[in-house]
Write a structure and sequence with these properties.
This protein has 180 residues and is mainly α. It contains eleven helices and no strands. Helix 1 packs antiparallel against helix 2 and helix 4 runs antiparallel to helix 5.
Amino acid sequence: NLAGVLLALGRRDEALAWCDHALALDADFATAYRNRAAVLKDLRRLDEALAAIDAGLARTPASAEMLNIRGAILQDMKRLDEAIASYDRALAIEPDFADALSNRGGARSAAKRYTEALADCDRAIMLKPGLAGAHYHRGLALTGLERHDEAEASYRQALAINSDFPMALLSRAGALGALR
């Protein structure tokens, strides 16, 4: 838990040290692997993050949360098919997991599967309307479908929920440019 707090405070190196300390005390502590993976992902040490989340999943293979994190790591590695497969596994365990739906929508947009991405994001928003990432990923899908007016509205909604969202701001600017 301390590692999670330290990560939220931006103290990544300390967070990683506490994860490692927890694992030294109990090498089967799946939550410590999950937290370690999150810290390593934030540090952009993606190969190590993937190894950590896979170690956690070896201990709790039915963790939708860990599968979602695994998908996000794979997505950052540009391994989109594997990322989508991890999100699929998470959603098979927990079908109403809005974060996994949103993330899968983002991965599907990156893979140019815009119609599927839009459906994922719409469902995520239905389940969790205040999820800024779902509105952002919806905007990406709509941009891919060249529905720029709707995309701009989605980016605007993401920014209304989280004003500190640089990618949503940049994407909104792109949509406004496309609309002239």
